[in-house]
Amino acid sequence: MKKLIFFVIAVFPASLAAQNYPSLNQGDMQNMMQKMQEMQQCMESIDQSQLNRLQSRSEQFKREIDTLCGEGKRDKAQKLAMNFAKEIGNDPSMKKMQECSKIAQGAMPNMMQEFEEKDYSQHHVCDE
After folding, report:
1. What does pTM read for this prediction?
2. What is the pLDDT of residue 5?
3. 1-25 pLDDT, tens per residue?
4. What is the DSSP string of the chain?
5. What is the rounded distance in angstroms from the CA atom of residue 16 to the CA atom of residue 18?
6. What angle do CA 12, 15, 17 make, to 5 degrees?
7. pLDDT score of 48 more than 60
């Protein structure tokens, strides 16, 4: 987690400069760096054991979906995927991560897209 945050903080300013944003001044850069540090502190407050639990659960979920899809049980796979999406969406660690990401959005309002719930009724988990 720390490596990812460090990478974003280290690489992002260089990528902005490479894109030649004329309106990015020293004050904007300082504000962005402050917001990224706030985001890092926020992310560090998330319980790593909970994130590890979510990762394990996600890997287990993927295996279950792959098995169901391989067996031709598409309806069951789709129902499981929808239930898992609700489970993850209600998880306190995921909610905290979303809060932390909003801090970064404040630093880069036009560069990060806000999470939007999408309508997956026309998509099937086995076709992904």
Report:
1. 0.56
2. 53
3. 555 454 445 545 544 444 444 566 7
4. -HHHHHHHHHHHHHHHHHTT-TT--HHHHHHHHHHHHHHHHHHHTS-HHHHHHHHHHHHHHHHHHHHHHHTT-HHHHHHHHHHHHHHHHH-HHHHHHHHHHHHHHHHSTTTSPPP-----TT--GGG-
5. 5
6. 115
7. yes
